[in-house]
Amino acid sequence: MKTVLAVCLGIAALAGAVEAQADPILIKFSHVVAEDTPKGKGALLFKQLVEERLGDQVQVEVFHNSSLYGDAEELAALRDNKVQLLAPSLAKFETYTRQLRVFDLPFLFDGLDAVDRFQKRAKGRQLLYSMEQHDILGLAYWHNGMKQLSATRPLRLPEDAAGLNFRIQQSEVLETQFNQVGALTTRLAFSKVFDALASGQVQGAENPWSNVYSQRFHEVQPYITESNHGVLDYMLVTNARFWYSIPHRIRTQLEAIIDEVSYAVNREAARLNALDRQRVAESGHSQIISLSPREREAWRVAMEPVWRHFEADIGPDVLRAARASNLREE
Ligand code: SIN
After folding, report:
1. What is the pLDDT of residues 234-277, one digit of tens each?
2. Pocket of ligand 1 (CB under 6 A)
3. How far is Cα 90 from Cα 264, in angstroms, rounded to an integer?
């Protein structure tokens, strides 16, 4: 009871402070990717619309390519209110919830449309609130795209990956996924991936085309298998205490802008990834390998045990809802 009261008083004090101040509310939005990607463009559109519509009441500063905080620090910085908006990939919330592991399961979603349906339905929306006890509030999902496997040798069948070391995000699911095909993993912040691939510290990675092209991973990965084996999407998150401290009138306008930006990001993501796929193909650096249905099925079967391993963490109801999203009608 005392804790609830203290939190309410804290929020009220913050709200009072924000109302009373003459200065605009400052929202720092930090992310780890390039500007010319679905997330990078979304952050810039958010800034543009907020400044057009909320003028002198709210200011937005955007920091891209880990220039303010990288993967290792950004969520702690959000909880300390040193930054007010982030959009980490869904694999990066391990410390705060295990339910989001559903998004990392290999071959769970048939494509981005299925991911979109899951995110819009009740179970997907509930996950936006799964970290509130840590002061992390989900405001929206943003798409990037389906991940492709890249490596120093051609990967057609699961056994081709055996013995290679893959860079992964901070995710136990992704570690298990690669171990399942006999590969090793190294967890690295996104800002370290190019150097790790270039130096040979790791020999493979998994990323959507927009990240491959914008970070030049294709220049140091001679083979990219178009595996579409998993999704890399984002949750736009804020510090819950900061968010609820914003005067209601301003907050509802910010939420309307976020809806508009999310719609634009999610509509554009597939187009941007297709464009970057083409740019990678035209660069001549990497050979793009298409899998036959039989080869793709071999990867799916090899990675299938990963689902069972994480079902209890995720919750059978969430997993069922995610699988059901492959069907248009529930
Ligand atoms: C991102 O798209 O935000 C980075 C994903 C990664 O770390 O691979």
Report:
1. 999 999 999 999 999 999 999 999 999 999 999 999 999 999 99
2. 32-33, 89, 144, 169, 190, 207, 211, 232
3. 19
Q: Among 36, 82, 88, which Cα is nearest to 61's?
A: 82
**Exposure string over 316-330, b if 16+ CB within 10 A, otherwise e:** eebbebbbebeeeee
**0.90 exceeded by pTM:** yes
Rounded to 5 degrees, what angle do the CA atoms 222, 224, 227 make? 165
Domain boundaries defined on the chain = 20-324
Decide: helix, strand or coil at residue 6: helix
Residue closest via CA to ligand 1's atom 4 equals: 190
* pLDDT one-digit tens code per residue, 157-182: 999 999 999 999 999 999 999 999 99
Give pLDDT, residue 328: 79
Above 50 in pLDDT, residue 9?
no
Architecture of domain 20-324: 3-Layer(aba) Sandwich (3.40)
Task: Say how many C-beta atoms besides its own lie within 10 A of residue 23's C-beta.
Answer: 9
Atom from ligand 1 closest to the CA of residue 167: 8
Please tell me the residue having the least CA distance from ligand 1 atom 6: 190
> Are 75 and 138 a contacting pair, CB within 8 Å?
no
